[in-house]
Amino acid sequence: MGGTDCSPVTGYIDPNWPRPGSSDYVCIIIVGYIPSFGLEVTAVALFTLALGLHLWFQLWYRPWFFSTVPVGTVMEIVGYVFRILASKLNPYAVSYFVGQYFCIAVAPVSYLAAIYAFLSVMITRAGHKYAPAPPRFILWTFSVCDIIATVVQVLVLASSAPRTPMEKTPTAQITSYWGTFIYKAQNALGPRLRVFAIATFIATVAMYVRTIIRLVETAEGLLKFLSTHEAIFACLEFLPILAAVFMFIVFHPGKCLAPARTAGKERDPFLPLSNT
């Protein structure tokens, strides 16, 4: 739509922000509002703080299975930087919309991969008999399914064609797995590991809330109610992910699965506690 006749158009146009004529811009503001500069700066600041803490824990505890969390946090930062650019430079820019949507939509895949890996480690520590599925099956199957589901979500929304996602999401299934595992293994885990498992379960629920709103948004399509109200974005996208990321800091798995520097040797997280 950039550089073409924009009348008539359906969508939000800011009366105080005229459209430029560059080919990188469209006739409407795709998100349906001017992104809040304050919200986006707050998001960048908080996710940057979280990134620094996660990198520190990653270097100190060396939990390889949690290494995707910093990757996802970097994507969150980049996504909100694109929203800052849209807020201050031009909200009609296609590149800013694509950049922020892709990064913010895909970043949670990295967090969920870490959750799948942590659940796999916890199952190995407590015992396979408490798990609804083998640990490596959980790790690889759910990671692949989550990537596929996210790619489909992005492609469907990009096509602007409403869809009704009827299938179960990997996030819903892993939430169920966490709850089942905690219930069955509560005595085997002990009080310390149980607290960390419950905290991760809460973080998973927060991500599930975010997943639900993304699925409904995908079903509606672009330029509809959910995708054009920043209050919904802030409460059901930004806050759940931020809460999960900081939950991972307070209850970082490295704190409960023993530092890798014990006795100067790397510890294999897939070994049971009795072997370390």
Automatic annotation (TrEMBL):
UniProt keyword list: Membrane, Transmembrane, Transmembrane helix
Subcellular location: Membrane
Ligase keyword on record: no
Membrane topology: Multi-pass membrane protein
Cellular component terms per the entry's GO annotation: membrane
Major localisation: membrane
Transmembrane residue ranges: 25-57, 63-82, 94-117, 137-158, 193-211, 231-251
Any Pfam family matching the protein: RTA1
Protein name: RTA1 like protein
Species annotation: Exophiala aquamarina CBS 119918
Lineage of producing organism: Eukaryota, Fungi, Dikarya, Ascomycota, Pezizomycotina
